[in-house]
Design a protein that fits this description.
Blueprint lengths: L3 H4 L6 H7 L8 H14 L4 H14 L5 H5 L3 H8 L8 H21 L2 H8 L4 H11 L5 H10 L12 H9 L15
Helix pairs in contact: 3-4, 3-7, 3-10, 7-8
Length: 186
């Protein structure tokens, strides 16, 4: 998505995301869950729609508090499906609720969602996609790839000549900590 470095700067929504979030490492479980959910919601839509609705998603899903979302029942599903401020897609909403429960189990087994991700790093994208498809609902290649790039586990968010790349380098994201040949797909 290196073209993003050309179009995002100065844009009302893409600019702040490009400059302070995209590719920067995340370690808090609720923030990782939030990003995964936003990527799921984006499927088939533009990222701009998601960025414009981001605050509404955060409010609707109670700051992506994993335990709260995992406990959602029919009342909460209906609330979400009737909330015009978010994407009202039943499959996506059901996947998010299901995935919150999966993350609870990962937290029990690994101490945190972040630890589970770290325990599988590094992998090439194709291996990550297999793992995510086996573990979560609604996580195909694009969703998994964007989630992992946007959280620092796969390269590709910023070109080296992008001014943000230097800031990103200082955070030493996980993908920069390993032999880069792991990311070359055959």
């Amino acid at each position: 998505m290196n073209w993003y470095c050309d179009v995002a700067p100065g844009h009302e929504f893409h600019g702040p995301y490009h400059e302070s979030e995209y590719g920067f490492p995340l370690s808090e479980d609720h923030k990782l869950f939030e990003r995964l959910c936003l990527e799921i919601m984006q499927a088939g839509l533009s990222w701009l729609i998601i960025l414009k609705k981001k605050d509404a998603f955060i409010k609707a899903f109670e700051q992506f508090h994993i335990d709260k979302v995992a406990a959602y029942g029919e009342i909460e599903r209906e609330r979400l499906l009737s909330d015009a401020s978010i994407i009202r897609n039943k499959l996506k909403i059901n996947a998010i609720i299901h995935n919150a429960g999966v993350i609870q189990n990962l937290q029990k087994e690994h101490g945190s969602f972040a630890n589970w991700i770290k325990s599988h790093h590094p992998k090439p994208k194709a291996e990550w996609v297999k793992l995510f498809k086996k573990t979560f609902k609604f996580t195909g290649g694009e969703i998994t790839g964007e989630f992992l790039m946007s959280t620092g586990y796969l390269p590709g968010t910023h070109r080296e000549d992008c001014p943000i790349y230097k800031r990103l380098e200082k955070t030493n994201p996980p993908w920069m900590q390993v032999d880069q040949s792991i990311y070359k797909e055959g």
